[in-house]
Amino acid sequence: MDGTTLGSIPASWRRKEESPRREAAIPLPSQGASNNSATNASLEAVKPVSQQKNLRMKAARVACGMSQSDLAEAVGVTRQTIGLIEAGGYNPTLNLCRSICKALGVTLNDLFWEE
Q1: CA 115 to CA 95: how far, in whole Å?
Q2: How far is CA 64 from the centre of its chain?
Q3: Which of 21, 34, 51, 53 is most deeply buried (CB count within 10 A of its CB)?
Q4: How far is it, in rounded angstroms, from Cα 48 to Cα 88?
Q5: Three-class SS string for the chain?
Q6: Rounded to an integer, what distance in angstroms lies between the CA atom of residue 62 and that of residue 82?
Q7: Do the Cβ atoms of 60 and 110 come closer than 8 Å?
């Protein structure tokens, strides 16, 4: 800097004093049974679909004669990642899905398309 002081900076360039921030009130979900039961029902509806996808992946892997370790090495992830995908505990990225399909010789539709 050239040694200018704050007083020589035009007022329009100066940082305005901020007023104290107020915390925004975030509404919490009600504790009513109807709201929770609807949420639980929607979660239950999603669960079987992901399990079906993962069972198809496991079936394709076994049909190719590959272990989880073999598939993991082929796609560049750990064996634990493959195990979590098959168990429904990990949602793989699209790139990982493509790599898995390529390694197993199947299409994305074969493993990941909902019918």
Answers
A1: 22
A2: 28
A3: 53
A4: 10
A5: CCCCCHHHCCHHHCCCCCCCCCCCCCCCCCCCHHHHHHHHHHHHHHHHHHHHHHHHHHHHHHHCCCCHHHHHHHHCCCHHHHHHHHHCCCCCCHHHHHHHHHHHCCCHHHHHCCC
A6: 13
A7: yes
- Where do we find the tokens 């609807």? 38
pLDDT in tens, 13-30: 665 555 555 554 555 555
Q: pLDDT, tens digit, for every residue of 32-63?
A: 444 555 444 444 444 444 555 688 999 999 99
- pTM, 2 dp: 0.55
The single-letter code of the amino acid at 33 is A
- Angle at the Cα of 106 from the Cα atoms of 102 and 111, rounded to 5 degrees: 110
